Amino acid sequence: MKISTKGRYALRMMIDLAEHQNEGFIPLKDMAERQNISKKYLEQIVSLLNKAGVLQTNRGFQGGYKLIRSPKHYTVAEILKITEGSLAPVACLDCGDVNCDRADNCVTLPIWQGLNDVINNYLENITLQDILDRENSADNYII
Questions:
Q1: pLDDT tens-digit profile of 80-101?
Q2: Residue 140 — pLDDT band, cuts 50, 70, 90?
């Protein structure tokens, strides 16, 4: 499994919104400048996040984006699944169910299922708030 640029940038954008959550609606151009990501690329990512219902949008003067929920209610897994579709390490696990003719006889399937569980459990247990807390911590502990 390799996380695409879109997934990594979506996570950075959501962290940026969490960091600036008390400033109201954040213009896309401000996020683009802070994160050094093209505004055009962020527009594509915002479209996905909007469709998923994780952002609130305000158009016009003083328009922009903000989180609908508290940062503690967004997981890294949720954000990456919106942009990546699946976090499965192999194609046969993409849909959640095993969709392979060899599944009954596949000796490697338990390995891929275990890896899939580890990936999902790890990312589902890291919230945007955890990332903010780590950033603000003097220890910079590993999540």
A1: 999 998 898 888 887 666 667 7
A2: low
- How does DSSP assign 4-16, residue by residue? -HHHHHHHHHHHH
Two tokens at 107?
A: 């000796």
- Give the pLDDT confidence of 33-74 residue by residue, as tens digits: 999 999 999 999 999 999 999 999 998 888 899 999 999 999
43, two tokens: 């527009």
**Both structure tokens of 25:** 């609606």
**In terms of Cα–Cα distance, which of 14, 31, 1 is closest to 82?**
14
Give pairs for 64-68: CB < 8 Å, separation 24+.
Answer: 64/24, 64/25, 64/26, 64/27, 64/28, 64/30, 65/17, 65/25, 65/26, 65/28, 65/31, 66/17, 66/21, 66/24, 66/25, 66/26, 67/14, 67/17, 67/18, 67/21, 67/128
CA 57 to chain centre: 18
Residue written as token pair 């949720």:
78
Q: How many helices (H) and strands (E) does the chain have?
A: 6, 2
Secondary structure class of 46 (helix, strand, coil):
helix
